[in-house]
């Protein structure tokens, strides 16, 4: 038992409710399978704060149980139900995971399963021996597979003997991989690419897509560009994006979407990739605020026949150079989490538009 602490005052429906004398109780998490529990540890909210903590439960009136908050759950909390005696409750997250508190028993969850529709609420049986979960509308990307290739890798610079190997990119010999570029202050493109890819993965999974990434972190070497293309081809991705940032001339700025040129292996996906490229250009321009490139392509679009990721693809794919890391204006925004999230959101929107046939914003 923790000492009793005074919480603060909220105004509710015109009533001034004093939520005080809260006792922090023992908390258990029940979540099956284990995968879904990472990042969902339980902490005590900062009771000094006047506003409720994120993902927290705050009792009012006769409710005796609380105060609980979840630390960065993998999915938003969308509902709760209480035991009949009020000595326990369950929280449900949109991914179907269940958190049990107090005397509430765990009876099962959908946490960790690939859901085609999000959980939207729950209710408990009158005697507390079970509960129902409610699942909502079909997610827009349910059943779709999306490939994400975050260009380069964080430790490529340590292994020139590996990344300098020659590979056949479908048109010519090319290096297995490169280190990528960086800003003048040393923020690496490999890190930028991986950050955006991670945000994009989360955005797409929230829409129900299955995501295939070509590398799991930013602390490895490679894989070769040919392997990256094969990973996405072998997964039969419905659409894919290679994420990069450019090392262009210091006085040039902006983003460009690179699209494949027919070379045999990719012949069947030239038209679909071009359509996807236009959608990507339009959403990226509309959503991120970064201009189209002043030095690469025409209106932000550039066909390329010398990149393995585009030459070897058997699914619709583009490569986006999100900005110029060697330009001071671009570099200043590329390194910010806010821009990286917005870049990922724009890509997710483009992917959703492409895969669902929604109307694209016009440029
Ligand atoms: Zn790159």
Describe the protein:
The chain has 363 residues and is an alpha/beta fold. It has seven helices and 18 strands. Strands 14-11-15-18-16-17 form a six-stranded mixed β-sheet, with helices on both faces. Helix 2 packs across helix 7 and helix 4 crosses helix 7. It is elongated and about 70 Å long.
Keywords for this entry:
2 domains; alpha/beta; 6-stranded mixed beta sheet; Aminopeptidase; binds zinc ion; 363 residues
Instruction: Give the tally of structural domains.
Output: 2
Radius of gyration: 24 Å
Along the chain, the helix and strand elements come as EEEEEEEEEEEHEEHEHEEHEHEHH
Mean pLDDT: 86
How much helical structure, as a percent, in the residues? 10-25%
Strand content: 15-25%
What would the CATH topology of the largest domain be? Aminopeptidase
Strand element count:
18
Number of helices: 7
Q: What's the CATH H-level superfamily name of the largest domain? A: Zn-dependent exopeptidases
> What bound compounds does this protein have?
zinc ion
Which structural category fits the helices and strands? alpha/beta
Which word captures the global form? elongated
């Amino acid at each position: 038992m923790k000492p009793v602490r005074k919480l603060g005052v909220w105004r509710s429906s015109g009533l001034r409710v004093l939520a005080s004398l809260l006792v922090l109780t023992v908390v258990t998490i029940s979540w099956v399978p284990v995968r879904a529990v990472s990042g969902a540890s339980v902490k005590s909210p900062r009771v000094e704060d006047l506003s409720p903590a994120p993902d927290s439960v705050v009792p009012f009136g006769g409710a005796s149980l609380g105060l609980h908050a979840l630390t960065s759950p993998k999915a938003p909390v969308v509902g709760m139900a209480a035991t009949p005696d009020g000595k326990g409750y369950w929280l449900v997250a949109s991914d179907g995971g269940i958190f049990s508190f107090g005397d509430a028993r765990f009876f099962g969850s959908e946490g960790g399963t690939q859901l085609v529709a999000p959980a939207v609420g729950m209710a408990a049986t009158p005697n507390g021996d079970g509960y129902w979960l409610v699942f909502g509308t079909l997610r827009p990307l349910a059943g779709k597979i999306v490939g994400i290739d975050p260009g380069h890798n964080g430790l490529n610079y340590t292994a020139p003997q590996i990344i300098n190997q020659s590979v056949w990119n479908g048109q010519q010999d090319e290096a297995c991989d490169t280190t990528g570029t960086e800003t003048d202050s040393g923020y690496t493109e490999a890190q930028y690419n991986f950050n955006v890819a991670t945000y994009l993965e989360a955005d797409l999974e929230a829409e129900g897509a299955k995501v295939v990434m070509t590398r799991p972190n930013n602390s490895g070497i490679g894989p070769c560009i040919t392997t990256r293309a094969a990973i996405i081809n072998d997964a039969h991705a419905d659409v894919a994006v290679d994420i990069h940032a450019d090392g262009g001339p210091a006085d040039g700025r902006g983003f460009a979407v690179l699209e494949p040129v027919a070379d045999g292996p990719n012949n069947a996906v030239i038209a679909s990739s071009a359509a996807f490229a236009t959608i990507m250009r339009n959403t990226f321009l509309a959503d991120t605020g970064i201009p189209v490139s002043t030095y690469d392509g025409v209106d932000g679009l550039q066909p390329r026949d010398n990149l393995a990721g585009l030459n070897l693809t058997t699914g619709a794919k583009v490569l986006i150079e999100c900005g110029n890391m060697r330009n001071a204006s671009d570099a200043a925004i590329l390194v910010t989490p806010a821009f990286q999230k917005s870049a990922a959101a724009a890509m997710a929107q483009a992917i959703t538009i492409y895969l669902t046939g929604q109307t694209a914003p016009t440029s």
